[in-house]
Design a protein that fits this description.
single chain, 426 residues, mainly alpha, ABC transporter involved in vitamin B12 uptake, BtuC, Arc Repressor Mutant, subunit A
């Protein structure tokens, strides 16, 4: 199959153009709102509302006997509002946690919707498959204009209420203290969310709605700590996922909604692995670097004590015994110190260079300053000081060490009566 057949030829069909437009608009609106759900740890709320619009749609159809958008929108919005009230009411008035309240409410209301849908399937023109997967490639042109309007409203709403949404997303108590009602902001946001869910439900189904509410925002969180950038990344990921997934569904002749969700999941997994700050690979590398740093600093600190701050050769067996360290780890650390010109290594001894002595004294100074600080400020017993100091010594900055020395009146001895090495910067 040529590139023209893969990418250009599908665009000659009207259903493909309409599918791309509706998929991008729905995914964009859901992705932007999903950022706030992810930040507020309310991802399950989106899932709850996505499922509970079903009974609202079915009841509205049964009452109006019409598939016009307005009755369905009203019915689903009413049920969505009731869902929010029920979840908050159960959570606030009982010992049930919020996530459990969400699970109880949305599963019950969704079950009611399924019962109504199946019980009246012979009389009602609603397809159960449409509930899950939608009809992305068969949407009428009016749905595109409706979704375009809704997506525009969402973007404008986020711009207008950005300050309120930002503050309530991170600190509802601060929001209330500043005169911004977190409750009203919550209900306004849920109103926007219900509007998007209702208008997109028939076109894309609940599978895509739930996934695109969570995946783009969760993925964007790996790449930015700032909300404006997070919104841009989530919006871009939503559109790219929609376009890529729709093309994949055409090539493989599979469900468009499922393909879009799988594409969004791939972006999430890739970000989970390779994000430079929060990815698993980056975290593993940082952890490995920290372990190596601790290993080298422990060797230097112990070598300085054993050699009594001199360049005397130290038997490796002595270091191994005092450090209680495997011989292989000690040898690897010693070789690394030799590469850094902080020590010279022979088959049986390790000798610190002046640079190694200075670094070892710095670590030992950090350790004993922190022990003294804990002893004076918290009156901890001597046998409780060493472990905490072992952890802090490796992350204490020179600025913190200097401030600590000033706070402790430039001490000479630690709580055990051992000398604290002087600062080399003095």
């Amino acid at each position: 199959m040529s590139l023209h057949q893969m990418f250009i030829e599908p665009l000659t069909y009207a259903w493909m153009i309409k599918g791309l437009l509706i998929a991008c608009l729905v995914s964009l609106a859901l992705g932007l709102l999903g950022c706030f759900l992810v930040l507020r740890r309310l991802s399950l709320m989106g899932d709850a509302l996505a499922h509970t619009v079903l009974p609202g749609i079915v009841i509205a159809f049964l009452i109006s006997n019409s598939r016009a958008s307005l009755p369905l929108l009203i019915g689903a919005s009413v049920v969505g509002f009731i869902t929010t009230l029920l979840i908050n009411g159960i959570h606030l008035k009982s010992r049930v946690k919020e996530d459990a309240a969400m699970g109880i409410v949305y599963s019950t209301l969704f079950a009611i919707g399924v019962v109504l849908l199946t019980a009246f399937a012979s009389h009602v023109d609603l397809d159960p498959d449409c509930v899950l997967y939608g009809d992305l490639l068969g949407v009428p042109e009016t749905s595109i204009w409706v979704m375009l309007t809704v997506a525009g409203m969402i973007i404008v709403g986020i711009i207008l209420f950005y300050k309120q949404l930002l503050i309530t997303a991170f600190d509802a108590q601060l929001s209330n203290a500043l005169g911004i009602s977190s409750a009203w902001t919550h209900y306004i946001f849920m109103g926007f969310l219900s509007l998007v869910l209702v208008t997109s439900f028939e076109a894309v189904g609940s599978v895509l709605v739930v996934a695109m509410l969570i995946a783009p925002g969760a993925t964007a969180l790996f790449w930015s700590d700032r909300l404006p950038r997070m919104l841009v990344i989530a919006g871009a990921l939503s559109i790219v996922s929609a376009v890529s997934g729709l093309y994949i569904s055409v090539w493989l002749n599979c469900s468009p909604a499922g393909a879009i969700v799988c594409t969004a999941f791939i972006f999430f997994v890739v970000s989970l692995l390779v994000s430079p700050r929060y990815g698993l690979i980056a975290r593993a590398l940082r952890a490995a670097r920290l372990r190596r740093k601790i290993l080298l600093e422990n060797i230097l600190k112990e070598a300085v004590k054993v050699a009594d701050y001199s360049e005397s050769p130290i038997p490796l067996a002595t270091l191994q015994a005092t450090l209680k360290m495997p011989a292989g780890a000690l040898l690897r650390g010693s070789k690394r110190l030799q590469q850094r010109k902080e020590a010279t290594l022979t088959s049986s001894t390790l000798t610190l260079t002046p640079a190694g002595i200075a670094e070892g004294e710095r670590i030992l100074r950090n350790h004993r300053l922190w022990e003294l600080f804990l002893s004076r400020e918290f009156e901890l017993p001597e046998d409780h000081l060493h472990r905490d100091a072992d952890d802090i010594e490796h992350i204490m900055t020179p600025e913190l060490a200097a401030a600590l020395a000033v706070h402790l009146d430039d001490p000479r001895l630690d709580p055990h009566g051992k000398p604290i090495p002087p600062s080399r910067s003095n």
